[in-house]
Write a structure and sequence with these properties.
6 helices; about 0% strand; mainly alpha; single chain
Length: about 140
């Protein structure tokens, strides 16, 4: 039963992250963000001060769509989970040290980052494509 629970957690995590990547990929609004891709570009370029913000935003979108789907299915689980852990650390950094969730706090990306780290350390689990393909990366 534990294997089923772990697979459900991995699938749910991937599905939740996917809902953040799909609006970026389709160019549609997401919650209060009229243009989520522009929001990502702004956060990467202006808030974090990183170069190549549009290109990095495309990589984030790919991680949050294709990567999230792969994680949900348990494909290249460790690699995708490490990348998502790094993304959640970056989001937490960019949002600053505010913890109260009513003030756009960082507790959600911190929690998601810890869950992604757990997937990276534990691997795909029993019910995953990685296991079916007999590889654990």
């Amino acid at each position: 039963m534990e294997g089923v629970g772990y697979a459900l957690l991995r699938f749910g995590f991937g599905a939740i992250i996917f809902t953040h990547g799909l609006p970026k990929a389709l160019g549609i609004s997401h919650g209060s963000m009229a243009d989520p891709m522009a929001g990502s570009i702004n956060m990467i370029g202006k808030v974090m001060g990183l170069p190549f913000a549009p290109q990095l935003a495309v990589l984030v979108m790919l991680l949050e769509t294709a990567g999230a789907a792969m994680l949900a299915l348990g494909l290249l689980t460790r690699l995708i989970a490490v990348l998502m852990t790094v993304e959640m650390i970056a989001i937490s950094y960019a949002m600053g040290p505010t913890w109260p969730w009513i003030d756009r706090g960082i507790e959600y990306p911190v929690l998601l980052g810890l869950v992604a780290l757990y997937f990276a350390l534990r691997g795909a689990g029993a019910y995953a494509l990685d296991r079916k393909l007999k590889r654990e990366i």
